[in-house]
Amino acid sequence: MTDTRETKSGFSGFLSYFYGNFIVLLLGFIQTPLVTRLMSTDEYGRTGMFETAVSCIYIFAILGLDQTYIRYYYKAGTDRRRLMRQCLLPPFLLVSVLVVIYFLFSAPANNWLFGRNGVDITLLVAGYTVVSVFERFLFLDVRMQQNGRLYSNINIAQKIINILLIFIFFKLFHNDFRVVLYAMTLSWLSTTLFLAVRFLFFKKDVKEAEYDIVKKRDYPEMELISYGLPFILVLLMEWLLSSCDRIALKSLADFHELGIYSAAMKIMVLLLTFKNTFLAYWSPVAMEKYEKGDGSEKEFFREAFDIVRFLCMAAAIGMISMRNVIVLILGKDYRGADRIIPFLTLMPIFAIMFEITVQGIKFKKKNIFLNIASLAAIVVNICGNFMLVPLYGGVGAALTTGVSYLIYFIVGSLLSEHFYPVGYDNLRTGMEAVMVFSLAGMAAFNMPRLITSLYGLVIIFVILLIEKKSLVRIMSLIPWKKQA
């Protein structure tokens, strides 16, 4: 059993990340219905294609060096400021080249993606991509220092600025997808500039200073790049996994169907806030725990996974049960999202659990094997979309996405366990996944609401029984209990 004080300290660290993203989640429930009520489904569909385009450019530009920064940050003697420069310079140079290429082919690219063209659209795609590179590394610096409070406050500030900018640009453009593009780009730019000033002029925190006692080490650029390069394929396949559904809907359906699907996906993005919160906390903690190698890390990982699995399954059941309330908030044009949300709910829960079980691949520097998990999921995703989207539209795309993330989780977990055996409870995970998946199917394919609700209650009761140990563990970490 891991030390209770250490676990409570870890829980407190997680809360420092969580409180900000919880507020961001609440702000997201303001932002998403605000946008869906201001914009038609066609225009909202175009914003989804914007995110798809900039994500693709970003993947090639970053060269996987963000993962290199995480992997080498806690190594004894690392000169962290030099490491930042080494990891940031190649992506900056490459993104500059990619932006030039995008400008040269902007007319056909914009017309295919958005059905429109314009200098400001091209500038927004290029600007958002450049900002994303800097934002990624500067935010990583905050995460690796385990400065949860600053991480949370920056996220809150970014979301508030985004909402304010939506109002401002709606006054200028009205029902036009560029409203969201301007708001996204300028809000990211404002917080990234703040982080840049902080990195250049503010003092290092105590945790970082502790590692400066050791003699500094330099790493050859090619060593850093060779570690990061396999992540290009990993991220590219993750991009395909998250983008095939939108591309299929645009090609096999229309912008209206894509708009409804994008609205449902935005709700999932709000759930992915929890994933990002957990990942921001978990990546540095897991890497530091492994590097110390005091013998207790595997039990620590097992306990963390049990707790996270329980919370993920509970969140999925709650989201599926509340789907009709959520859709009412989006507006009448987006009512079809109630059948899309259930299967999409599977995406964030398996993505979060994946981040724990796949760490062994990263520990052992076997990053290329992440591509196998991604490839398996991509094959399922492409086949599923082409078979199901023409039949079921957005519901077919959502079903395919849910199954793809399940495959992604299973294959990645098995490979990681091969290189770094931890002994996660696969039986319980499988039982709970089947129950939640069946509930999503009943909700998506219009089973009577009473039957679906009763089945949801049964699942909750069963999960509470088999996860009793995890529930007790969570209760012991909550600070309301007085010590004897």
Overview of the molecule:
The protein is 83% helix and 0% strand. With 484 residues, it is an all-alpha fold. The longest helix has 38 residues, at 255-292.
Shape category = globular
Mean pLDDT: 78
Q: How many strands appear in the DSSP assignment?
A: 0
Q: Round the Cα radius of gyration to an integer and report it.
A: 22 Å
Oligomer: single chain
Largest sheet: none
What is the count of helical runs? Answer: 22
List keywords for this structure.
globular; 484 residues; mainly alpha
Short description:
With 484 residues, this protein is mainly α. It contains 22 helices and no strands. Residues 4-11 have low confidence and may be disordered.
SSE blueprint:
Layout: H1 4-38, H2 41-62, H3 65-73, H4 80-104, H5 106-114, H6 119-144, H7 148-173, H8 178-201, H9 206-210, H10 221-228, H11 230-252, H12 255-292, H13 297-321, H14 323-330, H15 341-344, H16 346-357, H17 359-363, H18 370-392, H19 394-419, H20 426-444, H21 449-466, H22 468-477
Helix pairs in contact: 1-7, 1-12, 2-4, 2-6, 2-11, 2-12, 3-4, 3-6, 3-10, 4-6, 6-8, 7-8, 11-18, 11-19, 12-16, 13-16, 13-20, 13-21, 13-22, 16-19, 18-19, 20-21
